[in-house]
Amino acid sequence: SSFYRTFNKSIIEYWKILINYKLLIKGEYQMVRSGLLLLAATILFSASCTKKVNLNEKVLNVTVTAKVKGFDPVNAGDTYSSGEVARVYEGLLTYHYLKRPYTLIPALAEAMPEVSDNGITYTFKIKKGIKFHDNKCFPGGKGRELKAQDFVYSIKRMADAKNVSTGWWLLDGKIEGLNKWRENNTGKDKVNYDEVVSGLKALDDNTLQFKLSKQYPQFLYALAMVYTYAVPREAVDFYGKEFINNPVGTGPFITGTYAQAKRIEYKKNPNYRDVFYPSVGSEADKKAGLLVDA
Question: How many CA atoms lie within 13 A of 195 on its CB side?
Protein backbone atom coordinates (compact mmCIF):
# COMPACT_ATOMS: atom_id res chain seq x y z
CA SER A 1 0.00 0.00 0.00
CA SER A 2 1.05 3.64 -0.28
CA PHE A 3 1.41 3.77 3.50
CA TYR A 4 4.03 1.00 3.58
CA ARG A 5 5.88 2.47 0.60
CA THR A 6 6.06 5.76 2.47
CA PHE A 7 7.08 3.95 5.65
CA ASN A 8 9.93 2.07 3.93
CA LYS A 9 11.11 5.27 2.28
CA SER A 10 11.12 7.05 5.67
CA ILE A 11 13.27 4.29 7.19
CA ILE A 12 15.78 4.50 4.34
CA GLU A 13 16.02 8.28 4.63
CA TYR A 14 16.49 7.98 8.38
CA TRP A 15 19.44 5.62 7.88
CA LYS A 16 20.99 8.01 5.38
CA ILE A 17 20.80 10.87 7.86
CA LEU A 18 22.40 8.79 10.57
CA ILE A 19 25.24 7.67 8.33
CA ASN A 20 25.89 11.24 7.17
CA TYR A 21 26.28 12.33 10.77
CA LYS A 22 28.58 9.40 11.54
CA LEU A 23 26.34 7.98 14.24
CA LEU A 24 26.83 4.32 13.21
CA ILE A 25 30.01 3.79 15.16
CA LYS A 26 30.89 1.42 18.01
CA GLY A 27 28.26 1.24 20.77
CA GLU A 28 25.97 3.80 19.14
CA TYR A 29 24.71 1.16 16.69
CA GLN A 30 22.51 -0.43 19.34
CA MET A 31 21.06 2.94 20.29
CA VAL A 32 20.25 3.73 16.66
CA ARG A 33 18.75 0.27 16.11
CA SER A 34 16.50 0.76 19.14
CA GLY A 35 15.46 4.17 17.83
CA LEU A 36 14.49 2.70 14.47
CA LEU A 37 12.47 -0.06 16.09
CA LEU A 38 10.64 2.53 18.19
CA LEU A 39 9.98 4.67 15.10
CA ALA A 40 8.62 1.66 13.21
CA ALA A 41 6.38 0.63 16.10
CA THR A 42 5.06 4.17 16.46
CA ILE A 43 4.20 4.52 12.79
CA LEU A 44 2.56 1.08 12.60
CA PHE A 45 0.56 1.75 15.75
CA SER A 46 -0.56 5.12 14.41
CA ALA A 47 -1.64 3.58 11.13
CA SER A 48 -3.65 0.82 12.75
CA CYS A 49 -5.14 2.58 15.78
CA THR A 50 -5.83 6.15 14.75
CA LYS A 51 -9.54 6.79 14.60
CA LYS A 52 -11.14 8.47 11.62
CA VAL A 53 -11.15 12.24 11.78
CA ASN A 54 -13.67 14.64 10.31
CA LEU A 55 -11.37 16.87 8.26
CA ASN A 56 -14.11 19.49 7.86
CA GLU A 57 -14.38 20.00 11.60
CA LYS A 58 -12.48 23.00 12.98
CA VAL A 59 -10.88 21.25 15.93
CA LEU A 60 -7.26 21.40 17.07
CA ASN A 61 -6.04 18.66 19.39
CA VAL A 62 -3.00 19.56 21.49
CA THR A 63 -1.11 17.32 23.88
CA VAL A 64 0.64 18.46 27.05
CA THR A 65 3.07 16.22 28.88
CA ALA A 66 1.95 16.94 32.44
CA LYS A 67 -1.29 17.39 34.32
CA VAL A 68 -2.65 20.93 34.53
CA LYS A 69 -2.98 21.85 38.21
CA GLY A 70 -5.73 24.41 37.77
CA PHE A 71 -6.85 27.71 36.27
CA ASP A 72 -6.15 30.26 38.99
CA PRO A 73 -3.64 32.77 37.57
CA VAL A 74 -2.05 33.53 40.95
CA ASN A 75 -0.96 29.91 41.24
CA ALA A 76 -0.06 29.10 37.64
CA GLY A 77 3.54 28.50 38.60
CA ASP A 78 4.35 25.68 36.19
CA THR A 79 4.72 25.82 32.42
CA TYR A 80 1.74 23.59 31.68
CA SER A 81 -0.79 25.37 33.90
CA SER A 82 0.35 28.83 32.81
CA GLY A 83 -0.06 27.82 29.16
CA GLU A 84 -3.67 26.82 29.72
CA VAL A 85 -4.42 29.86 31.90
CA ALA A 86 -3.22 32.08 29.04
CA ARG A 87 -5.89 30.63 26.73
CA VAL A 88 -8.64 31.90 29.02
CA TYR A 89 -7.21 34.94 30.82
CA GLU A 90 -5.28 38.01 29.70
CA GLY A 91 -3.09 40.70 31.22
CA LEU A 92 -2.16 44.29 30.56
CA LEU A 93 0.78 43.34 28.36
CA THR A 94 1.96 40.49 26.20
CA TYR A 95 4.84 39.79 23.81
CA HIS A 96 5.03 40.53 20.11
CA TYR A 97 4.71 37.18 18.35
CA LEU A 98 7.71 37.59 16.03
CA LYS A 99 10.02 40.38 17.21
CA ARG A 100 13.38 39.41 18.66
CA PRO A 101 14.71 40.31 21.13
CA TYR A 102 11.37 39.80 22.87
CA THR A 103 9.27 42.96 22.80
CA LEU A 104 6.34 43.86 25.05
CA ILE A 105 3.14 45.13 23.45
CA PRO A 106 -0.30 46.08 24.85
CA ALA A 107 -2.84 43.31 25.46
CA LEU A 108 -5.70 44.61 27.62
CA ALA A 109 -3.91 47.93 27.93
CA GLU A 110 -4.81 50.49 25.29
CA ALA A 111 -1.15 51.41 24.85
CA MET A 112 2.16 51.13 26.65
CA PRO A 113 2.03 53.06 29.95
CA GLU A 114 3.01 56.62 30.68
CA VAL A 115 6.00 56.46 33.01
CA SER A 116 7.07 59.30 35.29
CA ASP A 117 10.53 60.78 34.84
CA ASN A 118 11.75 59.14 38.04
CA GLY A 119 10.58 55.70 36.87
CA ILE A 120 8.24 55.27 39.85
CA THR A 121 4.71 55.92 38.54
CA TYR A 122 3.16 53.90 35.70
CA THR A 123 -0.24 54.90 34.30
CA PHE A 124 -2.19 52.59 32.00
CA LYS A 125 -5.33 53.16 29.97
CA ILE A 126 -7.48 50.02 29.75
CA LYS A 127 -9.14 49.07 26.47
CA LYS A 128 -12.85 49.82 26.40
CA GLY A 129 -15.47 47.28 25.42
CA ILE A 130 -13.57 44.21 26.64
CA LYS A 131 -15.94 41.77 28.37
CA PHE A 132 -15.47 38.81 30.64
CA HIS A 133 -16.85 35.50 29.43
CA ASP A 134 -20.54 34.90 29.87
CA ASN A 135 -20.85 32.93 33.10
CA LYS A 136 -23.43 32.24 35.80
CA CYS A 137 -21.36 34.22 38.30
CA PHE A 138 -22.68 37.41 36.63
CA PRO A 139 -26.26 38.71 36.78
CA GLY A 140 -28.22 37.10 33.98
CA GLY A 141 -25.16 35.02 33.05
CA LYS A 142 -23.78 37.81 30.87
CA GLY A 143 -20.15 38.85 31.23
CA ARG A 144 -19.59 42.47 32.21
CA GLU A 145 -17.05 44.96 30.89
CA LEU A 146 -13.46 44.83 32.16
CA LYS A 147 -12.49 47.75 34.40
CA ALA A 148 -9.26 49.06 35.89
CA GLN A 149 -10.50 47.96 39.31
CA ASP A 150 -10.29 44.33 38.14
CA PHE A 151 -6.51 44.64 37.98
CA VAL A 152 -6.40 46.23 41.44
CA TYR A 153 -8.38 43.27 42.79
CA SER A 154 -6.38 40.67 40.88
CA ILE A 155 -3.02 41.95 42.08
CA LYS A 156 -4.32 42.09 45.66
CA ARG A 157 -5.29 38.42 45.27
CA MET A 158 -1.68 37.74 44.32
CA ALA A 159 -0.54 39.55 47.48
CA ASP A 160 -3.12 37.85 49.71
CA ALA A 161 -1.17 35.44 51.94
CA LYS A 162 -4.18 33.07 52.06
CA ASN A 163 -3.79 32.38 48.35
CA VAL A 164 -0.12 31.38 48.77
CA SER A 165 0.62 32.71 45.28
CA THR A 166 3.61 31.15 43.57
CA GLY A 167 4.14 34.49 41.84
CA TRP A 168 4.23 36.81 44.86
CA TRP A 169 8.01 37.11 44.53
CA LEU A 170 7.47 39.23 41.40
CA LEU A 171 5.86 42.11 43.30
CA ASP A 172 7.09 41.51 46.85
CA GLY A 173 8.34 44.89 48.07
CA LYS A 174 7.84 46.51 44.67
CA ILE A 175 4.49 48.38 44.89
CA GLU A 176 4.02 51.13 47.48
CA GLY A 177 1.74 49.98 50.29
CA LEU A 178 1.07 46.48 48.94
CA ASN A 179 3.24 44.65 51.46
CA LYS A 180 1.62 46.65 54.26
CA TRP A 181 -1.83 45.64 52.98
CA ARG A 182 -0.69 42.02 52.94
CA GLU A 183 0.58 42.25 56.53
CA ASN A 184 -2.60 43.99 57.73
CA ASN A 185 -4.78 41.20 56.38
CA THR A 186 -2.64 38.18 57.16
CA GLY A 187 -4.38 36.03 59.77
CA LYS A 188 -7.77 37.71 59.40
CA ASP A 189 -10.84 35.57 58.77
CA LYS A 190 -11.92 37.93 56.01
CA VAL A 191 -9.45 39.85 53.86
CA ASN A 192 -10.41 43.47 53.18
CA TYR A 193 -10.03 43.88 49.43
CA ASP A 194 -11.59 47.33 49.63
CA GLU A 195 -8.75 48.74 51.74
CA VAL A 196 -6.85 51.32 49.70
CA VAL A 197 -3.27 50.60 48.63
CA SER A 198 -1.46 53.86 47.85
CA GLY A 199 0.58 52.37 44.98
CA LEU A 200 -2.26 50.46 43.32
CA LYS A 201 -5.25 52.53 42.22
CA ALA A 202 -8.02 52.66 39.65
CA LEU A 203 -8.27 56.40 38.91
CA ASP A 204 -11.44 55.72 36.90
CA ASP A 205 -12.97 52.75 35.08
CA ASN A 206 -10.33 52.84 32.36
CA THR A 207 -7.26 54.25 34.12
CA LEU A 208 -4.95 52.15 36.28
CA GLN A 209 -2.00 53.60 38.16
CA PHE A 210 0.94 51.92 39.88
CA LYS A 211 3.36 53.70 42.19
CA LEU A 212 6.46 51.68 42.93
CA SER A 213 8.40 51.60 46.19
CA LYS A 214 11.57 52.10 44.18
CA GLN A 215 12.67 51.77 40.57
CA TYR A 216 12.06 48.28 39.23
CA PRO A 217 13.21 47.94 35.59
CA GLN A 218 11.59 44.50 35.27
CA PHE A 219 8.16 45.75 36.37
CA LEU A 220 6.53 45.73 32.93
CA TYR A 221 7.74 42.18 32.31
CA ALA A 222 5.98 41.13 35.52
CA LEU A 223 2.74 42.49 34.07
CA ALA A 224 3.07 40.15 31.09
CA MET A 225 3.14 37.07 33.34
CA VAL A 226 -0.03 35.08 34.08
CA TYR A 227 0.11 35.83 37.81
CA THR A 228 -1.09 39.40 37.15
CA TYR A 229 -3.88 38.53 34.70
CA ALA A 230 -7.33 40.02 35.30
CA VAL A 231 -9.96 37.95 37.11
CA PRO A 232 -13.46 39.16 38.04
CA ARG A 233 -14.28 39.38 41.74
CA GLU A 234 -17.73 37.98 41.06
CA ALA A 235 -16.25 34.67 39.89
CA VAL A 236 -13.98 34.30 42.92
CA ASP A 237 -16.88 35.07 45.30
CA PHE A 238 -19.31 32.81 43.46
CA TYR A 239 -17.09 29.73 43.11
CA GLY A 240 -15.04 30.08 46.28
CA LYS A 241 -12.51 27.27 46.60
CA GLU A 242 -13.68 25.89 43.25
CA PHE A 243 -12.61 29.04 41.41
CA ILE A 244 -9.41 27.19 40.50
CA ASN A 245 -11.55 24.86 38.35
CA ASN A 246 -13.97 27.45 36.97
CA PRO A 247 -12.03 29.98 34.89
CA VAL A 248 -13.74 33.22 33.86
CA GLY A 249 -11.50 35.52 31.85
CA THR A 250 -11.47 37.80 28.81
CA GLY A 251 -9.36 35.52 26.60
CA PRO A 252 -10.07 33.98 23.19
CA PHE A 253 -11.20 30.64 24.60
CA ILE A 254 -13.84 29.52 27.07
CA THR A 255 -13.91 26.26 28.98
CA GLY A 256 -16.37 24.86 31.48
CA THR A 257 -15.63 23.38 34.88
CA TYR A 258 -12.22 21.72 34.92
CA ALA A 259 -12.68 18.26 36.41
CA GLN A 260 -8.96 17.75 37.12
CA ALA A 261 -9.07 15.12 34.39
CA LYS A 262 -6.86 14.42 31.38
CA ARG A 263 -8.94 16.38 28.91
CA ILE A 264 -9.75 20.08 28.61
CA GLU A 265 -12.14 21.26 25.92
CA TYR A 266 -12.12 24.88 24.79
CA LYS A 267 -14.61 26.76 22.66
CA LYS A 268 -14.21 30.04 20.83
CA ASN A 269 -15.15 33.12 22.83
CA PRO A 270 -17.90 34.64 20.63
CA ASN A 271 -17.36 38.09 22.15
CA TYR A 272 -13.60 38.22 21.62
CA ARG A 273 -12.20 41.32 19.95
CA ASP A 274 -10.30 41.33 16.65
CA VAL A 275 -6.63 40.48 17.15
CA PHE A 276 -4.49 40.22 14.02
CA TYR A 277 -1.38 38.29 13.15
CA PRO A 278 1.63 40.66 13.08
CA SER A 279 2.68 42.24 9.80
CA VAL A 280 6.17 43.11 11.07
CA GLY A 281 9.02 40.67 11.54
CA SER A 282 12.70 40.09 10.85
CA GLU A 283 14.32 39.13 7.57
CA ALA A 284 14.62 35.60 8.94
CA ASP A 285 10.84 35.55 9.52
CA LYS A 286 10.30 36.62 5.92
CA LYS A 287 12.62 33.89 4.60
CA ALA A 288 10.82 31.33 6.76
CA GLY A 289 7.51 32.37 5.20
CA LEU A 290 6.07 33.67 8.47
CA LEU A 291 4.95 36.94 6.87
CA VAL A 292 3.62 35.59 3.57
CA ASP A 293 -0.02 36.01 4.56
CA ALA A 294 0.47 39.08 6.75
Answer: 16
How does pLDDT run across 208-243, given as a tens digit for each residue? 999 999 999 999 999 999 999 999 999 999 999 999
> What's 284's DSSP letter?
H
**Which 3 state secondary structure label does DSSP give 187?**
coil
Handedness of CA 168, 174, 178, 180 (dihedral sign): positive
Residue 104 and residue 220 in contact, taking contact as beta carbons nearer than 8 Å: yes
Residue pair 149/202 in contact by the 8 Å Cβ criterion: yes
**CB-based contacts of 167: which residues, under 8 Å, 6+ apart?**
74, 75, 76, 77, 158, 225, 226, 227, 228
Q: Alpha-carbon distance 108 to 200, whole Å?
A: 17
Find out whether 257 and 141 touch, Cβ atoms under 8 Å. no
**Residue spans of the chain under pLDDT 70:** 1-53
Cis peptide before 247 (omega within 30 of 0): no
DSSP-derived secondary structure for 139-166: GGGPPPBP-HHHHHHHHHHHH-GGG--T
E strands present in the chain = 93-95, 104-106, 114-115, 121-125, 200-204, 207-211, 253-254, 267-268
For 271, the 3-state DSSP assignment is coil
The three state secondary structure string of 231-270 is CCHHHHHHHHHHHHHCCCCCCCEECCCCCCCCCCCCEECC
Residue 60's pLDDT is what?
A: 87
pTM: 0.80
Amino acid occupying residue 54: N
DSSP line for 108-121: SBSSSPEE-TTS-E
115-166 tens-digit pLDDT: 999 999 999 999 999 999 999 999 999 999 999 999 999 999 999 999 999 9
